[in-house]
Amino acid sequence: MNFIDRITRLPRAHDPVDGQEALAAMPDLPEPLSDLIAGAGGSSPFLKSLILREGDWLRSAFDDPEAALERLFSELHEVPAEALGDALRQGKRRVALLTGLADLAGVWPLEVVTGRLTDFADLACDLALKAAVGAEIRRGKLPGMGEADIATAGGMVVLAMGKMGAHELNYSSDIDLICLFDETRFAPDDYHEARASFVRATRKMAAMLNDRTAEGYVFRTDLRLRPDPSVTPVCLAMAAAESYYESLGRTWERAAYIKARPCAGDIAAGLRFLAALKPFVWRKHLDFAAIEDAHNMRLAIREHKGLGGTLSLLGHNMKLGRGGIREIEFFTQTRQLIAGGRDPDLRLRGTVEGLAALAQKGWVPDEAAEVLTDNYRFHREVEHRLQMLRDAQTHVLPNSGEEFDRLAAFMGRESDDLRAALLRRLNAVHDLIEGFFKPEEASDASDAAEALDGEVIARWPTYPALRSARAVEIFRRLKPDILARLARTSNPNEALLAFDGFMAGLPAGVQVFSLFEANPHLIDLLVDIVGTAPALAAHLSRNAGVFDAVIAGDFFAPWPGQAALEAELSARLGPEVDYEHALDALRRWRKEWHFRIGVHHLRGLCDAEAAAAQYADLARAVITGVWPLVIEQFSAKHGAPPGRGAVVLGMGSLGASRLNAGSDLDLIVIYDAGDVEASDGRRPLAARPYYARLTQAMITALTAPMAEGRLYEVDMRLRPSGNQGPVATSWPSFQEYQETDAWVWEHLALTRAQVITGEPGLARDVEAFRQSLMRDKGAPEAVLAQLVEMRGRIASAKAPAGPWDAKLGPGRLMELELIAQAGTLMAGQAARDVASGFDGGVAIGWLDDGDRDALAHAYAICWRVQMVARLISDKPLDPGLMGEGGAAFLLRETGQEDLAELEARLEGVSKTAAGVIDAALERLPKKV
């Protein structure tokens, strides 16, 4: 279907007679096109002048406008440099004319209209740049460059910013450009000469595009978005620009780079520069502080342009005024800045595309995105019609009723209808966005403050979190709401002290306070945490970025399982550029999930059993993720692992899939080099030192205190020969040691061993061998004798911290787990969990059903107490210090009415379990 047939909507000329001159320039047109040309010529001086100058070309373009533009672009590539300026001006006229008519006729939607105008701007910049750089090269002014380098402009790139970067140019847009050059293509001694040459080329390019001649101009060109434009040259070295943004870049510059796009010259170099700039633009944590920056920018623009005050349609600025285009762009870009660091899917240049992505990811309500998208399209249409009517760069609505009538007619509307639509739409945008950028002031909380300890509140201004004026201003708005929420807790001053601890540990406040202001429900969560789990609150003050997970994902969704964790971690680590960045990303990811488990447990969304399994899933996912990273990093220097490779065994609580909030990891590494004596790399190593150093590298990856903290503490003492043995054990040595030299306690430890990651074949062999050992090494006399000795040694070496110590003491966790391991080993079972161990003891006649139930009951109570204790504090549990929130959490988890009842219950079940253990150690199983 051709252009003529696709015309479905025609503009109405304000005065059809005015269009006769344009129509006369193009006689013998089909009726729909005659109406279109007459209407456009009668209403738009802009289009009329273009029709008069380019009517012949336009006639040839009607059959296939897309092909006509392709021919035009192709022909411009063949224009010699001396004629390029005039050719570009003619090309701009033709593109604008054809695009304008397709726009008016409803043939092309907004995105196609702005896209075609932008495509031509890209071409014009590229051709003008290469002509200017080519002249420098031919004059010998660009050191080391020849004719072949003109194709990449000698390493210079033009970044399209703003509307051009987003493919959103209008008919009279300026183009905002940043010009850079790749200094690495030049020897150090040639740097200054090259920079001077690129500065000259930039000025010539800008002049070719910007200067008015008898043929008009191509684009008004603005180079002032570059770093510090008052003192820097018009073309900068990429290294200098990157250094500026890293040290001095501001939020408005971050927002500008959302739309940045290399459009001319060395595109590959431009893409590398933008990739290097990602950490500046896209912050690793949710960046709610950008909201206030954007709000301040909006206010500054209004004040500078005199656009504040009430909304009046006459003379209203559709771009910068209330409810205008810039407001929608700021709204979109601010939300992108907040979350784009965590979600690359939000890093889109176009406003409409950005709103759609934000709505899809839940950052903008669907209804709000629809309202803003619809009004953005409408605002842009009005902007385009204004520019066509006035043949000028304008965004201002008419100042007179007559001119308003003309605009309405040009848009095919009644004047009153257009006025009503504009008022409705501008107010809708303003109301929606103002609520986002300017949160309501919290209600007065003087009554709440009176109920709280004023001395505690008075010391907050001395804390590091409130050392900046900006943090103080945001916190001033938050403080009444925070105090009110603290006052509503069951013990306000206790909660206040806990919140005070959070504030005292917070190194900076702007980001966190901005986060709370944009998401008030997080204050409730924080108050809940600080009032219940001070250790978790202290962790939060040092790692407030973990709140990101609450906002940015399915934080309260059901547990996804280890496989889903591994897949998510793999996706998170994929974009990281080097080993250290990957380890820091892994630490951030682990903290978020660890925090999630703690909050779910704290709020009763999962119980102690589920939380224990989730902590274990997380640890296994971390080890599964870090192991290949370590191997890849180590192999780059020393070659691939010799032989079959290695496996990582989880021991203790990790092997049994029962970790708590503060658990360290018991690990063993087993390798099988086979007959391979050494690795094959740049610096080859013999098999034994290779695997020893590889294992040490893994331990370092897990335990090193990097910028994002550490992952886990690691204990390797359960390996053969403990701390005296090699840090990694060969597969043959491991088998021989376990068969002939291992102590009974080491076989007991293997009852909970589990391969976490590594070479699959070796993993199967290790597990088969473990099960074989379980069947062969469970001689009751030896096991029980060792058990008695171990119990006595533990009792003499580690005294309980008090009656609330759930781990140490008669009938407590450590003893109960030893009994379960003994039951598993003597029964020759493969199971790793405690319950199966007790069942094994019953199966061999060592325990009876009553013994098992008593032990299981004691274990359940002790485990729940231990899980709560490790979450709410890093110190031994002390009911006098845990506060009301902590006590309520502990009682809910254990099902008791009060602490005295729980203490008695804990003492009673432990005493009963200790009696069962005493008796069991005095007898042999009835059958094995």
TrEMBL record:
Keyword terms: ATP-binding, Ligase, Magnesium, Multifunctional enzyme, Nucleotide-binding, Nucleotidyltransferase, Transferase
S-adenosyl-L-methionine keyword on record: no
CC annotations in GO: cytosol
All residue ranges annotated as the Glutamate-ammonia ligase adenylyltransferase repeated domain in the record: 43-275, 525-763
Domain of life: Bacteria
InterPro entries per the UniProt record, alphabetical: GlnE, GlnE_rpt_dom, NT_sf, PII_UdlTrfase/GS_AdlTrfase
Gene3D superfamilies, A to Z: Beta Polymerase, domain 2, Nucleotidyltransferases domain 2
Single GO molecular function: ATP binding
Protein name: Glutamate-ammonia-ligase adenylyltransferase
